[in-house]
Amino acid sequence: MRIALSVLFFLFFIRSQAQDQAQVDRSDVNVLMRNEAEGGLTIHSNGFGLRYMRGWHLTGYKKHMLDIEFVSMRHPKQYKLANPYYESSKPFFYGKLNFAYLLRGGYGRQNIIFSKGEKSGVEVRYNYYVGLSLAMTKPVYLDVVIPNDSTAYLETRKYDPADPLMQSSTYIYGPGPYLRGFDEMNFYPGVYGKFAISFEYGGWQDKVTALEVGVVVDSYLKPLPIMANIRNDQVLVNFYISLLWGGKW
User: What is the domain extent for residue 198?
Assistant: First the structure.
C-alpha cells in the first residue's frame, strides 16, 4: 500500500511539473503570423523619403512583399552657394533646373537566413523587389535682382540657363517660393529593382522593428533633367537604409 501511494504521488508530481512547463513553453513559442505591415523612413545616397511594406507568408521562411516608397532625388554634384554681394541673400542650388521625386511601387520576396533564437534575438533576412518607378520633376524658381537705373528690385523667375541674369550667381538673390511650379510638373516613367539585407529585432511576436540596408537601381527612358550644364543620368544607383515599424497578425 505504501509503495502504491508513493507511485501515485510520484506520477501526480510529474504531471504537475509537465503542465507547468507546458504553460511556460506556450508563452515562449513562436507563433507563425501570416500577415505583416510596416512603414517608416528611408534615407538614400541622394535623398530621403517614406516607405510602406506589406507582407504575406508563403512558408515559415518566405514571404511575398509589396513595396511602396516616395523619396526625393538630388543630383550628386549639386551644391548650395550664397550671393556674396548681398548680405541678406539666401543659399540656393546654382544651376539646378528641377527638384525631382520618385514614386516606386513593386513586388518582392523576403527570405529568412537566420530566424530568432528567442524573443530578444535578431532575425536576418534578404529581400529583393522589382516594380515601376515614376519620376516627377518640378521647376526651380529663383529670386533675381533686376538692375534698374533708379532702384534695383527682385523678381521671381523660373531658372533658365539661357537667361543673361542667371548665367552667373551675381544677380541671383536666393530661392523663390518652394510651392511655385507644382502646376508645371513633368513625369518620367521607369522601372526599379532593389536588393537588401534586413534585420528584425522587435521584442514582441506581433510587432515589427526592422532595419533594412540595400541598393536600389532606377532606370528611365531618358535622363532626368535635374541640373543644367552637368550630365544627368537615366540610370540611378543609390544605397539606402530603411527604418521600419509595424505589426503582424
Answer: 33-80+93-139+182-248
